[in-house]
User: Fold this.
Amino acid sequence: MNENHQNEIGTEQLWDLYRVMARIRLVELKIEELYHLDDMKTPIHLSLGEEAVAAGVCAHLRLDDFVFSNHRSHAHYLAKGGDLKAMIAELYCKETGCAKGRGGSMHLIDTAVGHLGSSAIVGGSIPHAVGAALAFVMQNKTAVAVSFFGDAASEEGVFFESMSLAALKRLPVVFVCENNFYSVCSHISARQPNPDIAMRARAFDIPSVKVDGMDVGQVFMKAGDAIHHARQGRGPYLLECRAQRWRAHAGSGDPLREKYRKPEDLEPDWMRDPLSELEQVLRSRRGIGEQTIRDITGTLNAEIDEAFYAAQSGPLPRKEDLKKYLFA
Amino acid sequence: MPWTKLQIEREEPVFDENAGQDVRKLSFGEALREALDQALQRDPRVYAMGQGIDDPGGIFGTTLGLQEKYGPQRIFDAPLAEEATIGMAIGSAMAGLRPVSIHNRPDFLMMAMDQIVNAASKWCYMFSGQVPIPLVIRACIGRGWGSAAQHSQSLHGLFTHVPGLKIVMPSTAYDAKGLFIASVADNNPVIFIEHRWLYQHKGYVPQDVYAVPFGQGTVKRPGRDITVLAISHMVIESLRAAEQLEKQGISLEVLDPRTLCPFDEEILLKSLAKTGKLIVADVDWKTGGFAAEVVALAAEKGFGYLKKPPVRVCLPDIPTPASYVLEEAFYPGVADIVAAAEHLMA
Assistant:
């Protein structure tokens, strides 16, 4: 972790970030552990390795701020405060799920905490954040909309259209690109002539910055600036957070074993672990003992086990309700 | 005068739905303007955007003066980024607003198909009713004067295929206002398709706010021999054909479904029970379009009523040509409906 950044963050805040990241990590490890049983009959897209981005950004968000997300949405949902039981139940396609089993893992939602539903169309939810920001301005609110999307979404035309609209109307929206360098198995070099995504915001006079997405301290500080900028009415902001996707695009596969990533080509960041780095800081600099870490892990695992138990034993949707919800 | 107006004046005589009646009359375009005005007046959550919304022409007159009245925050010009603007409209609807997104031509909605088909139509179902998307998308079908293949499509057949969208296609001034009020009040995405050749037609339009409910067709002209289910501008053509055929002793019953989704099955089946013969007249292509859906419905649910195979009067399955001589051959109208009716009565 970058020392300058971590020194500016109080212990309480670092500890909060740790709990959020550890919760995401442990939830996803549990999903991975049980996924092969085929009881979660929905595609999963794990954020393992990328937890710092969601945690560092959402730490600045209020309940009335909105986040918009994509197919890899577990971390965004949890970091924004989404209900864990409802999320796990959705992975089990249960009536008790956050979308009552109509959405599955790619369509998580928790309107009570400002998570308005994630889209599995790459780039599809970027303009939704712009629209929510437009509404906030029209409603005289000081809320901010955050759009999480990946590097591949930055190839979609709607990304550029959305930045243009947001800049034109000076809207309080923060675009957060999680650049993990891979679109399924395709490396960014096969897809983009210039891998600098942050730079594209300049065409629209939108401030932007590249962020070490493996360093939660840096994400926290840079996201703080971006969200403050938007909340002050100074218009949109783009963060390009570079992070590592440790698992396959979907499912729990291993990119190395699947051979589209080769040990000799791995970015140095591959070996870093944002959670361990933070734990290291907490233990060596902030006096958090090993036992405290073990305690929080135990508490989180108990909560997670309970959520899985509730999801597994929850009711399935009824077939006679197939056509329910088509229209409001 | 712009060329398009010249041609419409020459080829499309003004149709007065309430000819000879001393009632308050507005044109189709004026009725839409009044409806948008009243929708904005009634509900501060309503706003409208579109390329050219504040132009001197005001989207065929339908937005004239509204920016002055409601300010640039609620009535604003939009860039031609159809995907992002409709996506933005959807996002604003999620946050509690009621957007109206206006597009000059349905052809340009193709750029926003991802947002319409993958987001707007699905959000309600996909998230078990938690986030409805109240959104009205207006678009106007062009016709004539060499508008050609990319400025003349209706494409409602594409939209009716997608569950979760409501499709509205008014043919008269009264319905235009009432259906627009209902569209803005609806909590779901509505595609509201107008026809360029309807704007100058007029009829009775009450000043008060009123809604024409979705899923209720209307008998535009009662008759006994043949049911003509007509869509948008084809309603006018069918009424003209009916007048002509009356002199030959053939009586057409002209139905206007007004909304294609939801569709008023009852009005169709009731009429078929009486006539046993069906013409479907549409402003879209024949194959795989809404006319095919109506015929399928008649076969599924009204087979016992049918005395003759139904006839579709639609656009031929080719892109719209530019040359006026080819346009004449391309667009079906009164003569085609008359011919279809004579064939059914033969």
About this structure: The two ends of chain A are 48 Å apart (CA to CA). Chain A has one domain: 3-314. Chain A touches chain B through 42 residues (CB under 8 Å).
